[in-house]
TrEMBL record:
Any GO molecular function: long-chain fatty acid-CoA ligase activity
Record-given protein name: AMP-dependent synthetase/ligase domain-containing protein
Catalyzed chemical reaction(s): a long-chain fatty acid + ATP + CoA = a long-chain fatty acyl-CoA + AMP + diphosphate
Signal peptide: 1-15
Source organism of this protein record: Hevea brasiliensis
Amino acid sequence: MSAYLVGVLVPLAVTLFFRNSKKSEKKRGLPVDVGGEPGIAIRNSRFPTPLETAWEGVFTLAELFEYACKRHGDKYLLGTRRLIARENEVAPDGRTFEKLHLGEYEWLTYAKVFEKVCNFASGLAHIGHRREERVAIFADTRAEWFIALQGCFRRNVTVVTIYASLGEDALCHSLNEIINMYSILESTNVNILALYRGYNCICGNKELKKLVDISGQLDTVKRLICMDDEIPSSASVEQSGQWTITSLSNVEKLGQENPAKADLPQSADIAVIMYTSGSTGLPKGVMMTHANVLAVVSSVRTIVPGLESNDVYLAYLPLAHILELAAENIVAGVGSAIGYGSPLTLTDTSNKIKRGTKGDASVLRPTVMAAVPAILDRVRDGVRKKVDATGGLSKKLFDLAYARRLSALNGSWFGAWGLEMLLWNFLVFRKVRAVLGGRIRFLLSGGAPLSGDTQRFINICLGAPIGQGYGLTETCAGATFSEFDDTSVGRVGNPVPSSFIKLIDWPEGGYLTSDSPMPRGEIVIGGPNVTVGYFKNEEKTKEVYKVDERGMRWFYTGDIGQFHADGCLEIVDRKKDIVKLQHGEYVSLGKVEAVLTVSPYVDNMMLHADPFHSYCVALVVASQPALEEWASKQGIAFSDFADLCEKKETMKEVQASFLKEAKKSRLEKFEIPAKIKLLSNPWTPESGLVTAALKIKREAIRKAFSEELSKLYES
């Protein structure tokens, strides 16, 4: 009996000892004395003062790019898959879907890209572009986007980034707000750089149509420059007589024949005016200096372990989002290769991949990726669906292996370590890792909170740490970032080396820095990564940007956080997402949504609370594969997916899954939606209901589904 107790208690004691010692021995963030509004401030434990650059003698993005190209000239920089064919497939319901047959990656070296960048910069000068004229990029992510960006930087030209998924109103607002600007736009098939005499743009067929539709409001457009050599014919454009069209390669050729001396920027010059995705209204243009972006790029370089020229990065997120723009500048700065892909061709089973064709990740086999939580949630759900469909011994082995590794990651010595871990990796998780190429060693997650369930799933199944970050466009995506050895979930890490993080009291919401056991309050971010402000919006700039008596610039985020004992930050709320119900209870919409979207039946959702009612309701975009599989097992007949979503049994099943997740996360009863509406059509950026980073647009959804929301409260 005593031997048995020793066998149980000794490992338990050792586990507890190491867990406690780890927590006490490593301080990831330390208190720091700062100016401005009273609060509690934390800095990165490794950097007593904010980091501005990680490269000696480099103070702008243009200098960083030139430094990298000269140092890594013969190495691959930009890769693009060859398009072999486009085919249309007809689904059983009669809908037609385009499928792509893609080949291998074709690469440009650092030296070749630098040559193209210099030629493009000279070409802009030759066609009459002036320094004070801006260039707007309205395009999906691709190599030409990056080349155009760097070409503009070599002429000290400010680049305006606009999401390719913007609707007509937001697009018109963004373009009309910029004066003396060139724009860069792109579409599904062809990408065009539209050079305006007030605006210069790059676009494609889809974007070209958008421009034509609002051409009456864009009378300053003078020239379009196609990224591709095949320039589409468009009667509407020709009839307008407004625009002339040339190709990007022609501009490069003009630059090659008429080289112009570089006009490099200073660190305080505006590098980018980045329009937000407009989740809370019309997009705002955030003005970023070269110093702002370089501070974040430098910070992440010090955090990602061993980032070097042998790494391969898969680029598929919108370059109009600061997360992707910063990530590509980071990996280019250290000499890594960037292979371009798309969310629609990412894996072997992605929507646009022709059957039998490999997805981008399988071909590229990246070592580093950035992802938004929505993408990682889809990877998790896809793997779980396959495992459940397989059933039998395979499912039992997966569940056992997962449970053993989960126990280990949660700190138990009784979990799978050492040889057992290697065995499970070989027998079970090797096939899962092949989904993203099998070589991922580090994932960067940002843009929205990542659920603990998804984080653990990725840790175990992909065998890679996730650096979960927190930041905003206004801070160049920089604020906090979890270090590679921080395996905790539910937190967003410690301050990045360029940032100070401060919490200030928000008494109206009940969040105080004097709270126990952890100080809580509104998150305020200071440091060289805090941007200049909003373009042509001085009133809003003064509202959320402050400079203290010591000269430190601070941004007031509106997010609510709490500091853990080791100096790491946890996001707990958002001021705008808190609604007071009829009986006085407060509901945090974002917090509840993060809990309930873990349900396998949910693709997306919006919780709605009304101060004139005592309960919440929800609009739920249903997961078609999960619900159809459930209905099949239950013997429930339905004519189509929309019919299935209307059935009472379906709503009851989804509600039951919500109660399960709510119980696990200890939600209050009033936080759980009393009534739901299941929606069969997905929310896409093109629909205007979610941003390019897949964040929901509450006001747009409320307007689009006002009738459905009213009925939920009436019934």
